[in-house]
Amino acid sequence: MSKNLKEKIAFWIFRILSLGVLLILFWILEFIFVRGWHMLSWDFLTKMPEDGMTKGGIYPAIIGTLYLVAGSMIVAFPLGVMAGIYIHEYTLDSFFKRFIKLMTNNLAGIPSIVFGLFGMALFVNTMKFGDSIIAGSLTLGLLALPVVIRVTEEALIAIDDSFRHGSYALGATKLQTVRKVILPMAMPNIITGLILSIGRVSGETAPILFTVAAYFLPKLPTSLFDQVMALPYHLYVISTSGTKVAESRDMAYGTALVLVLFVLILNLLANALRKYLGNKVKMN
Amino acid sequence: MSIKRIIEKIIEGALMISSGISSLAVLLIVIFLFREGFSLFSTSPLENKNIIVVNKTNPVSKLNAGQIKAIFDQEITNWKDLGGNNDSIILFTINDISNYFSDEEVGAEFEFLPDKLNALVDSNPTMLAVYQDKYLAKKFSGKIVNVAKNNIPDFIMGKQWFPTAEPAVQLGVAPLILGTLLVSFFAILFALPVGLATAIYMAEVADERLRKILKPVIELLAGIPSVVYGFFGLIVIVPMIHDVFNLPVGETALAGSIVLGIMALPTIITVSEDAIRNTPRSMKEASLALGANKWQTIYRVVIPYSMSGISAAAILGIGRAIGETMAVLMVTGNAAVMPKSLLQPVRTIPATIAAELGEAPAGGVHYQALFALGCILFLITMAINIWVQAISTRRKMNK
Questions:
Q1: B239: distance to nearest CA of chain A, Å?
Q2: Is the same domain home to B121 and B215?
Q3: Residue-number span of the structural domain to which B325 is assigned
Q4: Does A72 reach chain B within 8 Å, measured CB to CB?
Q5: Of A107, A122, A252, which has the smallest distance from its Cβ to B32's Cβ?
Q6: What is the pTM of this model?
């Protein structure tokens, strides 16, 4: 076999397998959109579940997920951005820096169910928050922390050192440089990463199983110490447990679609923002 | 020092503290996980403060959880199997009390029960009685059997997982560990070739336009929540396996492997594409200049050069697969038996924790056992993380 024929065969295999990856995504999206589309309505989004979750809407689950996303971002965003700034702008390549990076990587690699165990042991049982929004938000916040740190670091790495040197040359202090020069430039990338980490947090189920999620709770939370329903857990519940799995199938398709749409919109938003803010920074 | 300088120092301190939070979180996770998990190994497999009592003439003085279960399942019916005399075992639990004594004899408040139990065991030299320690008589004349505590070798090698069995729980996690490894291994077996091919295609073959299509596709695959993958697997893949292999149930290890394989694709593709892209241009050009074509260059130069990155991708993919919870929970059928084939239901460590923690009372043996499982999972993924980091540091140093 000539070497060019071999090349042709190999490249065709690559092409077909790559196409396969593309098809898998379309298969999943098609499955969710085709089966869930007819469920999508204003009522579905704004009504309480009815009849053992076989009818009605998913309003409390949507609200619950929004609360959890907001709560976890309040925890993870400031801490993560500050940590990222410290790691990249303040530490030299020291033992401390390597240690922090190692720990951040390790934290990122811990499976989400272990976060759930930890959240239950610390926030629910030891700190006596009970199953509550605050326990769930703290657990999810810790899960999102390494993502935010990494995103911030990457955004800072992308900024050329000449900007820092220029700022110092003008007599600015380190803090002034970070605040007035580096952060405004890094912000678009940081925000993009933040939006993507929101997508990740909103789909997590394992960490909230034992820290906040309620099986069925047809009312909205009134305090931080209330349980809430959440979209991913709701999908899990109505598609696997209970006696009315078959009757609630349509509800499950609808919930899956809402969840995927949420992630999809966040992804598109992040991409659009990256382009828009990127252009703006260049113009300035 | 001016006020400005002080403010700078304060802010620097705040930044430093927040950079320490992730280390603190890892530390806290280790403490809480291992504290709860290891307390398992100082407790007895007998729940509800039960004790096992035999006649004082009985030579048997030690039993373990497996033997107790075998006795209750009638698999062991003779004392000689336990190292005693050749007598059949008379089993007594507190529920049998009415066969031996009337309500009056026991007393309205069970006030005579301890003495009656003591007398019963005294008069039956081959009896094995299980009751709560609060019914132990003041003038106890029998013998309390020493029940082996839960221990690490039995925990890891044990093949029986019955965490709520009465009277002695069976905490063998070998089926769960093997189930996890089996499902993850086959997931990678499927995901690695596909992922690697896609990565090579994106990095070396495809033009910029195709890359621009594939990149967001992979980001989106990574972004779909695991519970949605599980749902997809449950509705689409499980029935498919059921039909194709003509099985009684479609919820099998194979379904888990397929779903996990799809989920591991983005990790494998991104990490290995990164590694492939890092091959120096000069090396590729040197190969082309020697007359090799593109495929020979990829095969002989690019892949060997980026091997460490590709192996990091594979290991990371395995790590993701091992830790994945919801999707596996929904499609593998969750039978805690030793896995024999891919076409059988299996149960993984994360799925076990997710399925059972809600029902395990806090602080009980079952709860502790699930935390101990969490420890195993933590150790496996930590080892994988450190391995990957070692690979990537070595790569940096080589350059």
A1: 14
A2: no
A3: 174-398
A4: no
A5: A122
A6: 0.90
